[in-house]
């Protein structure tokens, strides 16, 4: 088991309400989990709890069977990396190269090895031509690709994408989703993607829907997408294919048999896209 | 990016100046700064030699001269004010110019009209500072002649030799320092600069002072200067689109309008700082811990030549100051 949450709760100081409310789940190594939820549902808090950036009010978190606490946190962080929502707020380096190197410098990687890793992962995210560029002058998608290269260079087993596409245009979103798919299929990384976009959850192995700090749905993307009422009640927008299926099911213009055939085809297409 | 803000903006060019070791550049800047203050305030030859060093660097840096001039624009007012102060307050030496000023009702009205006209149309004028200076000279010239009606008060403004020399020297001294420091920031990456500072502070680590925390703070500050100016620009435009004019209104109103800029700036900066702290922590940064460095600093032949030349000039200057040589 890579991650294990045991009855974890979290609330911010001076706030009575739990942001995370008695949450328990596990995540297998090498699998991809999509955590879905509306703004303020507590999904980003889960990411920060895993990274040890926030401390659980109660309950315990295990990473690779080791309890996450102040003693183990520095070692455990070497197994995990995170890409945040706003690329501008996570750049430390003044050039792409410097920024990719930041995590490596912290982990005391020798210079020669550092240069090799920078070159390897900048090529992987297709940013080799921008190594001396100022991150400020890059597009949103390119900025997130630099952040991904920084995370990949640390060669961690787990990568968390905390709404990494929410500030990007459709082109940038497409680039980052393609990169996540590539990491999942070709690099066998354990991935957690946090999003409020159902489409981004389609290629995950497992989808978890969070509402008010609690798990309201947990299963494969197909299983979760079938629960349209719960998804809507959780403040999530249904993806186009599912919304059309819902409308077809309501209509009286088609026979029952035709409705079933069309819905089945649409359902299949939704997951193929 | 706010192009008017030059400080903290590194511009990548494949130039010889960019290739100089940051430690050499820092030492040179420090010696130029101290040196310009050691030069006796009437020795223009020595000051021009000191100015020659940043001027050569500007030429070889391959960066547009306008980028450097923009950094001077920021302090043009302070420079002009200091010059004017020296010019009128220093009463040493021979009188070079003596102006008889005639205060008459007409003169005062004309001067006020010129100034009011300038403030009304200043938005549309290029080189505001130079035009303003020209207008002040024009007003002084007008005051030499009593127009319509007798002068009710007459006074004498004298410009002394030392005032002019010291004023010009002061401007040239500030110009040298600003040009040298702008060359450093435009041609040196903030990370290289902080690595150099880190290197100089290394001896303090021996007495258990965590200098790496200090240099990381400098590095982040330099990294975020352009970002924050950029953010300020966005807020200014957002507020302007809602009708806020930061240049208009009474003084109190202008102060109130600045508050509408400062509050979102603080909120954004704090949010950025929180996010950055999380990102740094998540990437394994532990304040004060040992880190390896991507940048390997190595002094090359050019660095040794430059250091030798600068130190030689500096020592000669000290000897001159001590009265060993007379130039």
N-to-C CA distance of chain B: 47 Å
- Class per helix and strand makeup of chain B: mainly alpha
Domain tally of chain A: 1
Q: Based on the structure given, which CATH architecture of chain A is correct?
A: 3-Layer(aba) Sandwich
Lateral arrangement of strands in the main beta sheet of chain A? 6-7-8-3-9-10
Q: Main beta sheet of chain B: strand number and arrangement?
A: 2 strands, antiparallel
- As a percent range, the share of strand residues of chain B is 5-15%
- The average pLDDT score of chain A comes to 87
Helix content of chain B: 55-70%
Q: What spatial form of chain A do the alpha-carbon principal axes imply?
A: globular
Which CATH class of chain A applies here? Alpha Beta
Strand order of the largest sheet of chain B: 1-2
Describe the structure.
The complex is a heterodimer of chains A (273) and B (327). Helix content of chain A is 40%, strand content 21%. The two termini of chain A are 31 Å apart. Chain A is globular and about 70 Å long. Chain A is built from 10 helices and 10 strands. By secondary structure, chain A is α/β, with parallel strands linked by helices. In chain A, strands 6-7-8-3-9-10 form a 6-stranded mixed sheet, with helices on both faces. In chain A, strands 2-1-4-5 form a 4-stranded antiparallel sheet, with helices on one face. In chain A, helix 3 runs parallel beside helix 5 and helix 9 packs antiparallel against helix 10. In chain A, strand 7, helix 6 and strand 8 form a beta-alpha-beta unit. The mean pLDDT of chain A is 87. Chain A has a single domain, classed as Rossmann fold (3-Layer(aba) Sandwich). With 327 residues, chain B is mainly α. Chain B has 2 domains: 172 residues, no CATH class; 106 residues, no CATH class. Helices cover 68% and strands 5% of the residues of chain B. Chain B has a two-stranded antiparallel sheet with strand order 1-2. In chain B, helix 5 packs antiparallel against helix 8, helix 6 packs antiparallel against helix 7 and helix 10 crosses helix 11. The radius of gyration of chain B is 25 Å and the shape is flat. The two termini of chain B are 47 Å apart. The mean pLDDT of chain B is 83. At the A-B interface, strand 6, helix 3 and helix 4 of A face helix 10 and helix 11 of B.
């Amino acid at each position: 088991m890579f991650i294990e949450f045991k009855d974890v709760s979290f609330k911010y100081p001076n706030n009575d309400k739990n942001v995370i409310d008695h949450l328990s789940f596990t995540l297998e190594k090498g699998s991809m989990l999509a955590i879905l939820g509306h703004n303020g549902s507590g999904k980003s808090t889960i990411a920060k709890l895993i990274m040890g950036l926030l401390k659980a009010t109660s309950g315990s978190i295990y990473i690779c069977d080791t309890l996450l606490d102040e003693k183990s946190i520095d070692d455990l962080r070497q197994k995990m990396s995170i890409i945040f929502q706003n690329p501008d707020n996570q750049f430390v380096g003044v050039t792409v190269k410097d920024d990719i190197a930041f995590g490596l410098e912290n982990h005391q990687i020798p210079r020669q090895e550092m240069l090799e890793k920078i070159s390897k992962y900048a090529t992987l995210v297709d940013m080799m031509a921008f190594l001396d560029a100022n991150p400020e002058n890059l597009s949103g998608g390119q900025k997130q690709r630099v952040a991904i290269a920084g995370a990949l260079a640390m060669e961690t087993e787990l990568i968390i994408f905390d709404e990494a596409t929410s500030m990007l245009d459709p082109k940038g979103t497409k680039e980052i989703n393609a990169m996540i798919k590539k990491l999942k299929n070709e690099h066998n990384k354990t991935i957690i993607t946090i999003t409020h976009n159902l489409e981004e959850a389609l290629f995950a192995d497992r989808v978890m829907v969070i509402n008010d700090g609690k798990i309201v749905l947990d299963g494969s993307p197909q299983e979760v997408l079938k629960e349209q009422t719960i998804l809507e009640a959780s403040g999530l927008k249904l993806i186009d294919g599912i919304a059309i299926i819902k409308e077809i099911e309501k209509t009286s213009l088609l026979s029952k048999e035709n409705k079933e055939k069309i819905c089945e085809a649409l359902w299949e297409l939704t997951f193929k896209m | 990016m706010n192009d008017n803000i030059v400080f903290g903006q590194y511009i990548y060019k494949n130039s010889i100046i960019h290739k100089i070791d940051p430690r050499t550049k820092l030492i040179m800047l420090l010696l130029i700064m101290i040196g310009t203050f050691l030069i006796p305030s009437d020795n223009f030859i020595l000051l021009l030699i000191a100015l020659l060093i940043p001027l050569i660097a500007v030429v070889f840096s391959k960066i547009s001269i306008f980028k450097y001039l923009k950094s001077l624009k920021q302090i043009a007012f302070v420079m002009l004010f200091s010059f004017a102060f020296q010019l009128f307050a220093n009463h040493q030496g021979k009188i070079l110019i003596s102006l008889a000023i005639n205060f008459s009702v007409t003169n005062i009205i004309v001067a006020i009209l010129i100034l009011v006209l300038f403030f009304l149309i200043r938005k549309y004028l290029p080189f505001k500072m130079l035009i303003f200076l020209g207008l002040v000279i024009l007003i002084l010239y007008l005051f030499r002649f009593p127009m319509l009606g007798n002068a009710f008060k007459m006074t004498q403004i004298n410009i002394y030799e030392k005032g002019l020399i010291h004023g010009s020297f002061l401007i040239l001294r500030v110009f040298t320092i600003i040009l040298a420091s702008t060359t450093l920031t435009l041609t040196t990456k903030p990370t290289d600069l902080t690595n150099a500072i880190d290197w100089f502070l290394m001896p303090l680590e021996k007495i258990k002072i965590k200098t790496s925390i200090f240099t990381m703070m400098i590095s982040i500050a330099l990294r975020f200067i352009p970002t924050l100016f950029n953010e300020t620009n966005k807020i200014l435009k957002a507020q302007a689109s809602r009708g806020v004019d930061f240049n208009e209104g009474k003084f109190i109103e202008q102060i109130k309008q600045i508050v509408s800029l400062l509050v979102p700036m603080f909120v954004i900066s704090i949010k950025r700082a929180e996010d950055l702290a999380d990102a740094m922590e998540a990437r394994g940064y532990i304040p004060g811990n040992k880190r390896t460095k991507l940048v390997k600093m190595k002094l090359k032949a050019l660095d040794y030549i430059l250091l030798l030349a600068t130190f030689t000039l500096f020592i000669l200057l000290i000897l001159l100051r001590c009265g060993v040589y007379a130039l």
